[in-house]
């Protein structure tokens, strides 16, 4: 049995299976649009019916399926746990398959296991047993409490009422983190094999608390991260930046979000793989207190759909 949070933070119980990585035959871009795990596994994969774009979209932080074991170990209520989510981001980018690009979204929540971290970034203070020597215990993310198994939610509140075992962390990483990245890695490889190059759009959202602002005092709407030019061709980043600015959005590059694990791990422009992290201001589309969509949600969703159409149409010239 698994638990799922609805849009008001209420937790509902239902039975679900556990999928492993999809066989490579199921990630063939000639497959039907629903060659996916639906909502029954660690991720949902939606494939295009007609693959004509060398682009992959991924949302690693929008999952909201909560296990009863996780909820029983947490000291926070479900609504506070959800504050770490990039809520509804996979819905904002839902049109990707209609424009020839797969969309991969984690179903598991970031507070449970963070797919935008190295697989073994763990804080030893969270565990009652000794961690293996090969675990990364000293990264800045671990120090901030935001490792692969987070110690705190995004607002800084501690998640757990007790210490965990390393076996629990290992189970989460092998059962959730790994299937997500096995699938993402194969998607990128399949698209690159088909076209000779691949452009991965890493989809996220940013909270209004401490929101980035320009000197004018206006909040930034989008932050584009390409590791300061290391993960994506500059003309591709510039295209997205210019497009968004022409729609009236305020855009900033790499400040304060230059990119995370996905951007750094997959971004190899010299090898034909480009990654651009896109952070969307939550204030544009959601009530961050109640975790609910605002009436403006469909408007932003339509604008992002137009962006998807533009970048998939131009991708061949931007990242070839």
* Main β-sheet, spatial strand arrangement: 3-6-4-7-10-8-9
Number of strands: 12
What is the gyration radius calculated from CA atoms?
Answer: 19 Å
| Helical percentage | 25-40%
How can the largest sheet be summarized?
Answer: 7 strands, mixed
In the residues, how many domains can be counted? Answer: 1
The coarse overall form would be globular
Low-pLDDT windows of residues:
1-39
Number of H- or I-type helical stretches: 8
Which series of helices and strands comes N to C? EEEEEHHHEHHEEHEHEEEH
Question: What CATH architecture do you see?
Answer: 3-Layer(aba) Sandwich
Content of β-strand: 15-25%
The CATH superfamily label reads Zn-dependent exopeptidases
CATH class: Alpha Beta
What structural category arises from helix and sheet content? Answer: alpha/beta
Quick check: average pLDDT?
87
Distance between the termini: 45 Å
The name of the CATH topology is: Aminopeptidase
Explain how this protein is built.
The structure is a single chain. The radius of gyration is 19 Å and the shape is globular. It has a single domain, classed as 3-Layer(aba) Sandwich (Aminopeptidase), CATH 3.40.630. It contains eight helices and twelve strands. The strands form three sheets. A seven-stranded mixed sheet has the order 3-6-4-7-10-8-9, with helices on both faces. A three-stranded antiparallel sheet has the order 2-1-5. A hairpin with a 4-residue loop joins strand 11 and strand 12. By secondary structure, the chain is α/β, with parallel strands linked by helices. It is about 30% helix and about 15% strand.
């Amino acid at each position: 049995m698994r638990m799922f949070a609805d849009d008001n933070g209420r937790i509902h119980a239902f039975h679900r299976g556990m999928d492993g990585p999809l066989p490579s035959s199921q990630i063939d871009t000639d497959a039907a649009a629903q060659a996916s795990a639906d909502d029954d596994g660690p991720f949902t994969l939606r494939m295009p019916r007609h693959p004509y774009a060398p682009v992959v979209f991924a949302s690693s932080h929008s999952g909201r399926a909560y296990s009863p074991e996780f909820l029983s170990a947490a000291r926070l209520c479900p609504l506070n746990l959800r504050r770490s989510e990039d809520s509804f981001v996979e819905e904002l980018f839902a049109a990707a398959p209609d424009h020839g690009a797969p969309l991969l979204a984690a179903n598991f929540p970031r507070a449970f296991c963070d797919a935008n971290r190295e697989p073994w970034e763990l804080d030893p203070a969270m565990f009652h047993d000794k961690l293996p020597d090969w675990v990364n215990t000293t990264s800045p993310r671990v120090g901030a409490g935001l490792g692969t198994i987070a110690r705190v939610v995004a607002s800084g509140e501690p998640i757990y009422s007790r210490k965990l075992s390393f076996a629990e962390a290992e189970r989460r990483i092998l059962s959730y983190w790994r299937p997500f990245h096995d699938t993402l890695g194969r998607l990128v490889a399949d698209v690159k094999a088909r076209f000779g190059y691949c452009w991965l759009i890493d989809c996220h959202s940013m909270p209004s608390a401490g929101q980035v602002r320009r000197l004018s005092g206006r909040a930034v709407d989008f932050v584009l991260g390409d590791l300061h030019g290391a993960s994506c061709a500059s003309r591709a980043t510039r295209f997205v930046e210019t497009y968004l600015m022409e729609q009236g959005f305020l855009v900033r590059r790499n400040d304060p979000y230059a990119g995370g694990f996905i951007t750094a791990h997959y971004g190899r422009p010299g090898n034909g793989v480009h990654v651009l992290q896109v952070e969307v201001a939550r204030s544009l589309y959601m009530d961050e207190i109640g975790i609910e969509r605002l009436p403006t949600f469909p408007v932003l969703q339509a604008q992002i759909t137009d962006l998807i159409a533009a970048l998939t149409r131009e991708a061949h010239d931007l990242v070839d």
